[in-house]
Amino acid sequence: MSDTIGDRISFEGNCCTIKYIGPVKGVEGQWLGVEWDDPSRGKHNGTYLGENYFKCRKENSGSFIRQNRPRDIKKTFVDAFIDKYGDRNVEEYINFDIKSKNTNINPKIQEIYHPKNIQKKLPKRYIVTLDHMAISELGNIGEIKKKCSDILEIDLSGNLLNWKTVILIIKELPNLSSLKLNYNQLGTSELILSNNFKFSNLKTLILNKTYLKIKEIKKLCISFENLEELQISHNLLTLKTNNDFHFSDTIPHLKKIFLNDNKISCFETVTRIFGKLEKLVFLSLASNQINTINIIPNTFISLKYLDISKNNISEQTSLNNLNILHSLVSLRFTDNPLLKEFKSNPSTFIIPRLRNVMIINGTKITQEERQNAELYYLSTIEKEIKSGKISNYSDLIKEHPQWRELQKKYEKENPIFNTEKNLTEKIIENKLIELYIIFEKEIIKKKFISSMNIRSFRSFCAKFFKINPFDFTISYLEGSYKIIYIDDDSKLLSFYNLTSGETIYIKQNKPENYTQQ
């Protein structure tokens, strides 16, 4: 039995790659050191009794197997295709000649296996699925040559392929637009990494659980320059590369990328590597280890759909930063620590912070839901200000960058959210002012919070001086002579720029004289 390092073999359907051939210390015979596609079948990293024989890409995915152990029979691509979809020589395939009209053969069997009926299994152009069929070579392509031009999508997941065989296969599929190679431990190939192979028709490439490194993936993509969708989930990727490493010069037409279930911890790295792809509209980073979201300006200019669920995001600044993505309309953000207090209704927390997002966690936001969420958000900010949790303007804008925009949006509908127009460093809403109030010969001195509305102030004066709340005017002097009337009950005290020490004049209206006619 002739084995070579890098060969793909399988035992009872479990695929692995040969990493070592030879003796093993402490045991007799010839052994194969293999790395299993399924890491759970492994026992070590290629080290036995203190001696290292090979290295594994995946932690503890290696083991030793006797070289003479019976293994699964490999198939060619052509054989697998014929096994599943039928042969042009159908009568030979089922070991009888339909044309002979053998009376010993059940008529129903003859009908089922008639070539015309087998061809009906497949439409003119079709998706071919040949996953987990122990395919290792191309085979005699002439047997299915005519069918190859009709194949648009093919699934070769979980086979025993290397890049050389993959290239031989797709060269025979001129109209192929989607290639799925999940669970194939392909490694690197000098042939494909030399950039001598080009396949411009391919639009979708799926490489989940292939455990390729990001630099290998980029070199691979050079051969598929017109890719629009790339799936590289479950590959242990960290994306730690040089600062000048990016994909925009390799696959500039990419629209979708899936990076789920990797070991990515830095969103800024994702931005640097993929942010310059001007046509990218979909990015999935679910189930990674991202803690914060920092976006480099002028990146992801076309991104509409972002999935960053099941990460470690705990600061609302990260959510606020997503407003930099002006094209973003759909966000998945479930299972992040930031939403721990909003598990029952996370949208209430997310909606007011992202002005353009219309779909959250797969659900479309109605206009009423947005308004309710934004008003609730403003009320929580007001509480933070009144409690002193936020004590200056810079902290307010840092924590709630949407505050000014929303406060302006709801100024008429909800006066309680009004604030002084020339707000600078101090937040007037949380500031007390001491006023002198004069009514006829009576004068009082009292402190008021500047966020108090005039309606409440009028009510206080009416109650204190025991007069009709609708039967007096409120005014103060600006300078020495100019009388300013406080007559808009919807405004706040802060609107009139009142400061401590100001004098307020309460003047009861004169009763009108009526003449009986």
Automatic annotation (TrEMBL):
One of its GO terms (cellular component) is cytoplasm. Signal peptide: none annotated. Pfam families: CAP_GLY. Residues 22-66 form the CAP-Gly domain. InterPro entries: CAP-Gly_dom_sf, CAP-Gly_domain, Leu-rich_rpt, LRR_dom_sf, Ubiquitin-like_domsf. Keywords: Chaperone, Cytoplasm, Leucine-rich repeat, Repeat. It is found in: Cytoplasm. Belongs to the TBCE family. Supercomplex made of cofactors A to E. Cofactors A and D function by capturing and stabilizing tubulin in a quasi-native conformation. Cofactor E binds to the cofactor D-tubulin complex; interaction with cofactor C then causes the release of tubulin polypeptides that are committed to the native state. This is CAP-Gly domain-containing protein. It comes from Pneumocystis murina (strain B123). The lineage of its organism: Eukaryota, Fungi, Dikarya, Ascomycota, Taphrinomycotina.
